[in-house]
Amino acid sequence: MGSFSIWHWLIVLVIVMLVFGTKKLRNIGQDLGGAVKGFKDGMKDPNAAPGEDTTTGTGTPKELRDSTTIDVDAKEKSRQQQ
């Protein structure tokens, strides 16, 4: 009762295909794949050309990391001196 066999999953798959239809399921799969691809492209450097790898090895684009890193201690020290 705790686990399902392959036959249970096949019956569920057939019922889902009958209810939704293969065309709608294919469209859902394409939409999901496009969303994942768009997310991956969005995580890359926006200034890089398509297909260009600008990551440093940690997965963070080097230009983005260097341009947005803020040294908080230096910022506070400069405010105290003024």
List the helices and strands and how they pair.
Layout: H1 6-20, H2 22-42, H3 62-68, H4 72-81
Structural overview:
With 82 residues, this protein is mostly helical. The chain has 4 helices and no strands. It has helices at 6-20, 22-42, 62-68, 72-81. The longest helix has 21 residues, at 22-42. The radius of gyration is 24 Å and the shape is elongated. 0% of the residues are buried.
What would a concise description of this structure say?
This protein is mostly helical. The protein is 65% helix and 0% strand.
Structural descriptors:
mainly alpha; 0% strand; elongated; 82 residues; 65% helix; 4 helices
Q: What percent strand?
A: under 5%
In sequence order, what are the helices and strands, one letter per element?
Answer: HHHH
Q: Low-confidence parts lasting 5 or more residues at pLDDT below 50? A: none
Q: How many strands in all?
A: 0
Helix fraction, binned, reads 55-70%
Rg from alpha-carbon coordinates: 24 Å
Shape: elongated
Give the terminus-to-terminus CA distance: 72 Å
> Quick one: biggest sheet?
none
How many H/I helices? 4
Average pLDDT value? 74
Q: Please state the structural category.
A: mainly alpha
